[in-house]
Design goal:
This protein is an alpha/beta fold and 425 residues long. It is built from 13 helices and 17 strands. Its cofactor is pyridoxal 5'-phosphate.
Length: 425
Amino acid sequence: MKFENNLAFAQQLDSQDTLGHYQNEFSFPQVNGKKVIYFTGNSLGLQPKRAKTYVDEVMNDWATLAVEGHFYAEKPWWDYHERFANPLSKIVGALPTEVTVMNTLTVNLHLLMVSFYQPTSKRYKIICEEKAFPSDQYMFQSQVRFHGYEPEDAIVEIKRREGEHNIRLEDVLAKIQEVGDELALVLIGGVNYYTGQVFDMKNITEAGHKVGAYVGWDLAHAAGNIELQLHDWQVDFASWCSYKYMNSGPGNASGCFIHEKHHTNIELPRLAGWWGHNKERRFKMEPNFDPVQGADGWQISNLPILSLAPYLASVELFAEIGMAALIAKRNTITSYLEFVLHEIDREVKGNFEIITPANQQERGCQLSVFLHGEGRSLFDYLMKNGVIVDWREPNVIRFAPVPLYTSYEDIYRFGQILKTGILNK
């Protein structure tokens, strides 16, 4: 498509957008009395308006049924989480029995490492990417120390080549081969939070398995954003937060994937709790743990229904639309944002550098941009003028035009605000 940087063209794209009306499904903050242009769904998604209905339903059931809500609410609490199985499985490319909801992201990764990081004197190393999200880095360090190893020895970071912003697939595969028999686990962010690079999960998973390692993925920036086929790729495990692209609310419950090939492995360790116990016998209060067959068998505690309610509202919204439609719009609207950035860069004689891969197969809807010659003051200008973006040191602004609630007119108007902010500094 040949893009144009003008209002009429943006409005024409919006008139052809079959998902455009979904913007009305979300609540937008306001700045200066106007709805914001919201580019930070990669940090916290907007609130679906229907989320309040789902939360109110739980509150009303609690008020009128109290403890009986576990069994007699319209959506009984004791199996509330089972409503996520089908919609989540379609979002991440899994069987319904391979997904569950529980806890939060880093908690779940720690719990999954109990099962999938089993170091020995020979095979104890973990491969991750350079500049992984800090929570993952802290997790790796604490896990290897817990097992008696030093992070400097046990954690192997795959680094970017000098002068490059993204990690090459060939370097990931080469490092897996190099570590070889010492490698216990590959655990990488499916989409790098800083650059927005999407990793080739299929080939990396296959390479890890070839040397005898488990392979897991942190999908915080991937779930609800990119196409995933976790079952077919034979991924061992994965987890994701739900409050970014899936709009479940701040700090809300996480999702988990455990491949079905591990469901009946009684030798695989896990930390157990009663909500992972045989559903039909859970309330018999038996002393010995009999796990549910499937990802639900990794659950530990009674689930936080009030937290799950807005998450359920969102995944049902995803079920209405389907990932294929979201990805199709994502590709077009992210390309339009890329075009507008280049146009404004040319008009202001600037020096923007988009560090996210240009190849659509290697990115989702996030573009990370070095605004060379511009500083924090430009970020502050954008925020004060109703463009909500994300600043990362030393000088990167992350833009995420989420297809659920971003319009093409938003992209055009952002470009004009950006241009004014640079020319009038």
